[in-house]
Amino acid sequence: MSKQGCKAFADLLRGSKALPAFKENVDGGLTVFCPTDSAISGFAPKYKNLTEAQKVSLLLYHATPVYESLQMLKSSNGIMNTLATEGANKYDFTVKSEGEDVSLKTKVNTASIVGTLIDQDPFVAYKINRVLMPRELFKASDALDQAPAESPKPAKKKKNAKKGSEDSDAADAPADGPSDDSEDQKAADQDSNGVSGLHVRLVMVLFGLIMGFLVL
Description:
The protein is α+β, with helices and mostly antiparallel strands. It has helices at 7-14, 19-26, 37-48, 52-60, 70-75, 163-172, 180-193, 196-214, and strands spanning 30-35, 63-64, 78-80, 93-98, 101-105, 110-120, 123-128. The protein has one domain (7-172, 196-214): Roll (FAS1 domain), CATH 2.30.180. Belongs to the fasciclin-like AGP family.
């Protein structure tokens, strides 16, 4: 799971007073947006400077009290309340989809969904590439030094030099192995769908924590 990038957030949640709110909502529906380990690592200095109450609000900001499948998020663009929403403290963000991409926009920064960690109605957890920063706790300038968001690496373009004979040889040469595009597609499919081991570990660390409190 640490390779897929949700252990750090699960650890923060486990040791916080935000966990009971997750537990109380999971039975009726819960959607969690889990920042990657690298995003949490880059955000750590800011997190340490928050008060305990602010830390709780930030963690609650990464979940909504309803089950939202990926298809539902793609078709329901607009403002979404979170577990931190209460009275004048809006703690909301805007969901925006473009094709297959879904982004979460606060007044401070924007994060993208980069994978589905687990989807077992009424609970779903997504991996996002940034820590969501609510305007109630941060200002726009605070996002400038946030860790770079993870994004797919663009395929390298071949140089146009020595085009003549090289292009001819490449056209005649047999395909001895899978193409780069094929390998990239396999990697994308693995990241999108996850592996069974990831799901098991995620259930143990995150979903298992929440469900465990329900039977106490």
